[in-house]
Design a protein that fits this description.
It is built from 18 helices and 17 strands. It is an alpha/beta fold. It folds into three domains: 171 residues, FAD/NAD(P)-binding domain (3-Layer(bba) Sandwich), CATH 3.50.50; 95 residues, protoporphyrinogen ix oxidase, domain 3 (Orthogonal Bundle), CATH 1.10.3110.10; 105 residues, Polyamine Oxidase, Chain A, domain 2. The strands form four sheets. Strands 8-7-13-14-15-12-16 form a seven-stranded mixed sheet, with helices on both faces. A five-stranded parallel sheet has the order 10-2-1-11-17. β7 and β8 form a beta hairpin. It is globular. The model has no long low-confidence stretch (mean pLDDT 95).
């Protein structure tokens, strides 16, 4: 008799786990409290525009993600991003778009850094690393290795783009594992990243020859297409929240839900305390459509980030139709503004937010007229924060899983928040159970 697996939550982590385990012969049931699958990985098509309400792109950077796309038959349906999207990203400073460096040599020529800042970069390989037992914030780590100006212009906007959070409060060893791991393994972030880049290129060559170097992708109809295809092959109970008693009947139970949802399923006091302490950032997502003539000089690129103390009302602006031409009708432009986060949480409910964003766009992009398309949604508690006590949470999760071998936690508040991370966690779990 096949073992029965219950998965609580039909976001990308739950769907991926269900897919991989069904392939192994498990009898899988997914419970989803809402009426739709995909969680925040949700796409809409309106008036010829394709709107993303979660991630706008995904990086094809894990084995699990590649295996998933191949296995569900969507590999030939991938839409890779336009070349400029991978290498052209901008920072808004004094209402000007300044291109961010994309390689070490460009950091030495960027106007965002002073001569002294650039000398600091050259000295980075000779700065002693943190001890493995240290727990620096992203801000403390970046300022020590690269200097405060580098942190201000590059790290802080970058982290805001990922977490919509505060670099002073995010633990670098969990929030930016790549940088921490590079320093710990090679005593230098720069040396470590160069080494890793070569390893990734070799992996790509071994896997498939035709993967573009930028590796940002979506699908016709949006990223939600992946969730829809996976879901069509699984037994999913929508608008259903299982009881603890119901879950006890399964051989394995996998949780992929938010912290407060998981809190209802455990009696472990220590774990409940940690779950209750996880902060989440809420964001507003504004989609704006324009005629090409309204923004004649929109540069090729992914989009623009803002400085933490900048006057703009958005955290990031995504040039959606510059990344993927298929997301807007011919002759039109789609922009996506990300608003709020922990920087300005009240702004997402501001009744004048559309007017304020348009004022920003006129100042930065010289936008003329009003948008021909507009859609605004608010995603409450969308992004978990990997704060300074994150290791305490991981310790309690590990203790809980070791004491209760049939229960597994794959939620995005542990071990990575990206789509690639969530799929990879599901893939690895499927190999272990």
């Amino acid at each position: 008799m096949n073992k029965k697996v219950a998965i609580v939550g039909a976001g990308i982590a739950g769907l991926s786990a269900g897919h991989f385990l069904k392939k192994k012969g498990y009898e899988v049931t997914i419970f989803e409290a809402s009426g739709k699958v995909g969680g925040y990985m949700h796409s809409q098509q309106i008036d010829g525009f394709t709107l993303e309400h979660g991630p706008n792109t995904v990086l094809l950077n894990t084995k699990g993600l590649r295996e998933l796309i191949l296995s569900v038959g969507l590999w030939d349906k991938i839409k890779f991003s336009n070349p400029g999207a991978g290498k052209n990203r901008f920072l808004v400073k004094d209402n000007n778009l300044i291109r961010l460096p994309s390689n070490p040599l460009e950091f030495l020529s960027t106007p965002l850094l002073t001569f002294r800042d650039k000398l600091k970069l050259l000295k980075e390989p000779f700065i002693s690393p943190f001890k493995a037992t240290d727990n620096p914030s992203v801000a403390a780590f970046a300022k020590r290795r690269f200097g405060p100006n580098f942190h201000y212009h590059f790290i802080e906007p970058f982290v805001t783009g990922i977490y919509a959070g505060n670099t002073e409060k995010i633990a670098v060893k969990h929030g930016l594992k790549l940088l921490w791991g590079a320093e710990q393994k090679h005593s230098s972030v720069l040396k470590g990243l160069i080494k890793r880049n070569k390893e990734v290129q070799n992996q790509d060559n071994n896997f498939k020859k035709d993967i573009p170097k930028n590796k940002l992708f979506s699908f016709e109809g949006g990223l939600g297409k992946l969730c829809e295809v996976i879901a069509s092959q699984l037994n999913i109970k929508l608008n259903t929240k299982p009881t603890k008693a119901e879950l006890e009947e399964f051989d394995h139970v996998i949780y992929t839900i938010k912290a407060k949802g998981l809190n209802q399923y455990t009696d472990n006091t220590f774990l409940k305390t940690q779950l209750s302490n996880i902060p989440y950032a809420s964001v507003g997502i504004m989609h704006l459509g324009f005629e090409e003539a309204q923004i004649p000089n929109l540069p090729d690129g992914y989009g623009a980030l803002t400085l933490m103390d900048g006057p703009q009302h958005f955290l990031g602006l995504i040039f959606s139709s510059k990344i993927f031409t298929h997301v807007a009708p011919k002759g039109k432009i789609l922009l996506t503004a990300i608003i709020g986060g922990l920087k300005n949480p009240a702004l997402i409910e501001d009744p004048k937010i559309r007017q304020k964003i348009m004022e920003d766009l006129r100042a930065i992009l010289n936008v003329s007229g009003e948008p021909c398309f507009y859609k605004y949604t608010i995603e409450k508690e969308a992004i978990p924060q990997y704060h300074m006590n994150h290791q305490d949470l991981l310790d309690e999760v590990l203790k809980f899983e070791q004491a209760n071998p049939k229960y597994h936690i794959l939620s995005n508040f542990v071990r990575g928040i990206s789509v690639g991370d969530c799929v990879e966690k599901a893939y690895q779990l499927s190999l272990e159970i």
